[in-house]
Specification:
Elements: E1 3-11, H1 16-24, E2 28-33, E3 37-42, E4 49-53, E5 65-69, H2 72-82, E6 86-92, E7 97-103, E8 109-115
Parallel strand pairs: 1-4, 5-8
Antiparallel strand pairs: 1-5, 2-3, 3-4, 6-7, 7-8
């Protein structure tokens, strides 16, 4: 299953702008901002990204990492068949992604997604 990108999700208690400015010093630029979640990308490599989040708008938990795959439905089927702990079921979100959350063996919440 092809992976398109892997993005760390940083829970931010600071103001989003403060975090954006900090990571801007390292060459990141704001590419998406919904108020509660902001993604920053490298100007030289747009797949090098960091996501800042204060909470999750629709899920009961905040993910620790996001993995974008080509086929999220196939990834969901593989995880369910493996018996993995799905903590947020597969669904379409209003901001244009289809996603689910699964716990890895370390208790890390993994957001697995595809863009629609």
């Amino acid at each position: 299953m092809p992976v398109r990108r892997v993005v760390p999700d940083i829970r931010s208690e600071a103001m989003m702008e403060e975090s954006r400015d900090f990571y801007g010093l390292l060459g990141f630029e704001e590419v998406m901002n919904q108020g509660w979640v902001m993604t920053l990308a490298s100007s030289s490599d747009p797949t090098a990204q960091v996501t800042l989040t204060s909470h999750d708008r629709s899920a009961p938990v905040v993910p620790d990492i996001s993995i974008e795959v080509d086929d999220v439905d196939a990834a969901y089927a593989v995880m369910r068949e493996s018996g993995a702990d799905i903590v947020y079921p597969l669904r379409d979100e209003e901001w244009g992604v289809r996603r689910f959350f699964v716990l890895d063996p370390n208790g890390t919440v993994v957001n697995v997604l595809s863009h629609r």
